[in-house]
Design a protein that fits this description.
Blueprint: H1 3-17, H2 26-32, E1 35-40, E2 49-54, E3 57-63, H3 68-84, H4 103-116, H5 119-128, H6 133-143, H7 147-157, E4 162-168, E5 171-177, H8 179-184, H9 199-204, E6 213-216, H10 217-220, E7 229-237, E8 242-248
Parallel strand pairs: 1-3
Antiparallel strand pairs: 2-3, 4-5, 4-8, 6-7, 7-8
Helix pairs in contact: 1-4, 3-4, 6-7
The structure holds zinc ion.
Length: 287
């Protein structure tokens, strides 16, 4: 199974459960597979949940101490394991290490994101709002999803050139980009330090600016051949030393190419695009 199939399976699943309200009813998803949702008071802090089968019934257990957003993600991730028939692969590894995450876990995250932020509900609302972090906050609130997962999916479905970047300890881990930004060649390499002249770097260094701030586009995008400036908004999450960054162009279009060289415009290295899915920020195992 590949990610695209997982996405399609998830969309079908959402349609079958007919959960058209907001936030999407995770309980309805669990019920749809004949499952029972349990809130466990005694799980350790770093254990989000697990599931097991007993007498043909699926029991999905989530950590009662986790935030509601996290519990919803855990429940949907477990539903994914059951619906997709994928066994858990829960070896310990850094959560951001997308490349080394077991495939089954990635597929279940992809599936879970579709359940939490269903395309047919999410996309129209993205288009309604002005681009900016407050739109992400609003959507995260309405869908009861994390800011990170919402922002990631937000940039991915956006029509205008737009990127949502997750950095950890001042290093870019992941960037979700809209189709138009990918086509314009807006490439943000992972494992690169967050550029010093950005709002994101200043917030991490203790700055208090609210943003948005304007910065030359080639500060963020490598091999950028269009010039211009991007608007940048950012959040610094001190507890995890994480920075969330949103980039877009004021007129919602990428500037034209500076030098109309006739060589191919689309040479960016192949990066696996995530469909707006991020694993949870923990270095511990997840089921
Ligand atoms: Zn899992």
């Amino acid at each position: 199974m590949d990610e695209f199939s997982a996405v399609l399976r998830a969309r079908n699943f959402v349609r079958e459960t007919d959960s058209s309200g907001l936030p999407p009813a995770v309980e309805a998803y669990v019920r749809h597979i004949g499952g029972v949702l349990r809130y466990e008071p005694d799980l350790p802090d770093d254990e989000p949940g697990y599931s097991f089968e007993s007498n043909g019934k699926h029991f999905i257990c989530v950590n009662e101490k986790d935030s509601e957003e996290r519990q919803r993600f855990t429940a949907c991730h477990e539903v994914a394991h059951i619906v997709l028939g994928l066994p858990s692969e829960h070896s310990a590894m850094p959560w951001w290490s997308y490349a080394s995450r077991p495939k089954n876990e990635i597929l279940c995250d992809v599936f879970a994101a579709e359940l939490l932020l269903p395309k047919q509900l999410f996309e129209p609302l993205v288009r309604e709002e002005q681009i900016g972090f407050s739109a992400i906050d609003e959507l995260a609130h309405r869908f009861l999803a994390s800011t990170t997962a919402t922002g990631s999916r937000y940039a991915f479905v956006m029509d205008a050139p737009c990127a949502f970047i997750l950095s950890q300890k001042g290093v870019v881990r992941y960037a979700s980009r809209s189709k138009s930004l990918r086509e314009a060649g807006g490439w943000i390499p992972p494992r690169r330090e967050v550029p010093r002249e950005t709002l994101s770097a200043r917030l991490r260094a203790g700055g208090k600016e609210a943003g948005p701030d304007e910065v030359a586009a080639d500060v963020w995008f490598s091999d950028w051949r269009r010039g211009g400036e991007v608007l940048e908004e950012a959040r610094y999450l001190r507890a995890w030393d994480q920075t969330l960054t949103l980039l877009w162009f004021e007129d919602e279009e990428a500037p034209p190419l500076l030098h109309d060289t006739s060589d191919t415009e689309d040479e960016e290295p192949l990066l696996r695009e995530l469909d707006g899915v991020l694993p949870w920020p923990t270095k511990r195992r997840r089921r």
